[in-house]
Every structure is written in C-alpha cells, then in structure tokens.
Model the fold of this input.
Amino acid sequence: MRKIVFLLFIGLSFSSFAQKNYFVKKGAVAKGYDMVSYFNNEAKQGNKKISTQYDGVKFYFSSKENLKKFQENPKKYIPQYGGYCAYAMGVKGSKVSINPETFEIRDGKLYLFYNKGRTNTLLLWNKEGAEELKKAADKNWKKITGK
Done:
C-alpha cells in the first residue's frame, strides 16, 4: 500500500512539475489552441474531444488530422518556452501569459506572445530585435527548466 501511495505521489509531482513548464489554461497548453494549426499560419481553437497528452500536459486539436501530425512529431509543434510569452522570457526571464492568437513561426518554431490592450509583445519582439531577444529567452528558459 505504501508503494502505491508513493508512486501516486511521484506521478502527481511529475505532472505538477511538467505543468509549471507549460502555459496551461482552460485544461490545455496555450488555452487549448491547436499547435499544428499555427504551422498553417492560423490560430485555431482546439477541441477537448480531439486531444492528447504529451510531457505531462494536454494538447487540443481542431481536427483528427492535426492530432495525428502532432503525435507523429510532437517536438516539432511544441511552443517555445512552454507556450509562455517569448518577449517576456527574453526581456525578463518571466513566465507571462499569452494571447494564443498572437504568434510567430521563426526558423520552424512556434513563439507565442502577450497581447492585451495597448501592449502587443510580438510588435515589441520584432521592433527591439527578435534574434537577440530569442537568444536571451533561450538562456533564461534553460535557467528556469534546467533544459
């Protein structure tokens, strides 16, 4: 019985740790938006009924075809910095929420950004130098995750 409780505790701890490294809201990464759709230059809301779990978190998809593409190569579609705002990660090393409809595909990778009111961090990202901010964000993310 103690082994079962211990294993359950370890499993829940891992799941909580994994969720801390992803922007999870509304039950899935990036508020349930379809990661594969971004690579078609679209931000589409996913469907709870078309979902999968990867790396301890849920991902929703707008179609079974997109789910299949994700399952074949999940690392291709995972958002950078766990789906947190790329700009905030570059500037401050902070985990900041995003607007899932504000995104950029750069060098085959998905970057998501905060966009509310008068603050659109995708515009700031490009204005202030995306390549340098990306390098800083990569370093900051390594410090946070150890990866």
In short: Confidence is low (pLDDT under 50) at residues 1-17. The longest strand covers residues 47-54. The chain is about 45% helix and 25% strand. Helices lie at 2-20, 35-38, 64-72, 74-77, 86-91, 121-128, 130-145.
